[in-house]
Amino acid sequence: MVDEATKLSLAKIPLLKTKAGPRDGELWISRLKEEYQALIKYVQNNKEADNDWFRLESNKEGTRWFGKCWYIHELLKYEFDVEFDIPVTYPTTSPEIALPELDGKTAKMYRGGKICLTDHFKPLWARNVPKFGIAHAMALGLGPWLAVEIPDLIQRGVVTHQEKTDSGAAASR
């Protein structure tokens, strides 16, 4: 299921130890620290590999995450808002990552722009509780989804490059 490059990237993301969710008080604070450390390491690794593709931040409680992700296709950057909430049953339940602006544009998406991860990612997540966290969800969930879906959406004309649209509108005036 996972190619060698992904395995190597994944091996560099620290595994988490604390099994705690948002309702677990001080344990959640410990888990959140581990989450941030893993995310920081994953972003650093991506930058070193010239594969920087997302930015995330959270609310103060670490229960709501939001940011940007992007995909480079034929030297053009396609950028999307990304968001998700941490489920109360986290880390037993993985987060449902959403790209709201793509809602309804692909069959591999649920209402609200939540990307479909049921077939491949969720069983893998379940086998790795509590070791996997947000960085792993990005690496094994959103990253592969973008790599498969975005080129298809571009090819079908469902997603267009923003600068093309802007310059096209300016040229037609």
From TrEMBL:
Domain of life of the native organism: Eukaryota
Functional description taken from the UniProt entry: E2-like enzyme which forms an intermediate with UFM1 via a thioester linkage.
GO cellular component: cytoplasm
PANTHER family membership: UBIQUITIN-FOLD MODIFIER-CONJUGATING ENZYME 1 (PTHR12921:SF0)
InterPro entries reported in the protein's UniProt record: UBQ-conjugating_enzyme/RWD, Ufc1
Protein name (Swiss-Prot/TrEMBL): Ubiquitin-fold modifier-conjugating enzyme 1
SUPFAM superfamilies per UniProt: UBC-like
Keywords associated with the record: Ubl conjugation pathway
